Prior knowledge:
Elements: E1 7-10, E2 28-29, E3 37-40, E4 45-49, H1 64-67, E5 77-84, E6 96-105, E7 112-117, E8 135-142, E9 145-147, E10 156-157, E11 161-166, H2 171-191, H3 222-230, E12 232-233, E13 237-238, E14 241-243, E15 254-258, E16 266-272, E17 282-287, E18 290-299, H4 302-306, E19 320-322, E20 333-339, H5 352-367, H6 374-383, E21 387-392, E22 400-406, E23 434-435
Parallel strand pairs: 1-4, 3-5
Antiparallel strand pairs: 2-12, 4-18, 5-16, 6-15, 6-18, 7-8, 7-17, 8-9, 8-23, 9-10, 11-14, 11-16, 13-14, 15-19, 20-22, 21-22
Helix pairs in contact: 5-6
InterPro entries: FmdA_AmdA (IPR004304), FormamaseFmdA (IPR054833)
GO molecular function, one term: hydrolase activity, acting on carbon-nitrogen (but not peptide) bonds, in linear amides
Amino acid sequence: MAPPTPKLVVPIDLKKKPWEQKLPLHNRWHPYIPTVGEVNTGEVFRVEMVDWTGGAIKDDNSALDIKLVDLSTVHYLSGPIRIVDSDGIPAKPGDLLAVEICNLGPLPGDEWGFTATFDRENGGGFLTDHFPYATKAIWYFEGIYAHSPQIPGVRFPGITHPGIIGTAPSMELLNIWNKREKDVEVNGIHSLKLCEVLHTRPLANLPTTKSCFLGKIKKGTDEWEKIASEAARTIPGRENGGNCDIKNLSRGSKIYLPVFVEGANLSTGDMHFSQGDGEISFCGAIEMSGFLELKCDIIRGGMKEYLTPMGPTPLHVNPIFEIGPVEPRFSEWLVFEGISVDESGRQHYLDASVAYKRAVLNAIDYISKFGYSKEQVYLLLSCCPCEGRISGIVDAPNACATLAIPIAIFDQDIRPKNNKVPIGPRIVKKPDVFKCTYDGNLPITTNPSATS
Length: 452
């Protein structure tokens, strides 16, 4: 007998705001956010979701919506969903929740997405000291392929995946998060040498009641005020999974998530049509609305059996991800190397972040020789299926990071040759990405030897 149609657990109406949905969405992590549904292990179920901004970014000819976006709202998640076994017994703290991605994609009638860079004063990004202004490119989907009018001459298949999937934290784990992240935010600028090289601010996103949505909990009540003041933001990945942005987590993949509360309380969102390793522009995947069809299993006692705590408590664990068999088939790559030396020529010690930043800057400067603006390349490398690697982490003083770009996504040959760099007939600086002015006064980093 054919399997039944997946049960729709969280529906989305694209004509409605996140807070107007039949099952209200949430944008924080907290153990007391009420569940919106229950599923049994072995049951295939469907979860629909808005894009991470809840529809704030439009398919139009301006980046002003990116420049002014309210980042206190992110990310809108669907769930939480309570998981029980065939006997009706819920997942318990200490279990592992095995989540299989059976199917996924954009919501019908909404087959488009966007990639962007935030303004340096409102979010920033990996290279915000080089690109401090807001930019945006719109992508349209044709089956498995994406193309953008703002980045002509490029077309590639996407590895569609959820940027966020995770379980609810316990109160003990939530308190650990809030304590350590507050310490980074308060003291990090004085103690973390990387702050001189990586300029995204704030250093951490602490709990705030501003733009907080807690699903079924009514805003303004005493319960809402208490939970909103301590609920964790969804921006970084943590022990519960969350915003891991693993680009290969597509059809056939499995996620083994630690369970910290009864029922696991699974939530997901932030769908991506495609993403490059690192999601470097921050708003850096092809962001879209979408759906997941999932199937769960409960591995009783799995946390102790399979996850080794890397910290002072049994809660300091991390999920395991099993990548599925679906990915584009590329055979030729151009690989750019970076080492632990920053743009000023300063040596850093085995610093993979500095090395990766340099690899990305090398790639941007190189590809811009083929008729692209550097803003076009920055957005492209953030969302195309490029591969980032830490290639060396032991040969002091330089870490070695690499960024591999599939040659086939371009409509011209971008490999070095004896003759002059060719400019393809469709590759022109205009149309370019949509761009706003930068109105702040922070210094802009430049590489004195780079192409202008």
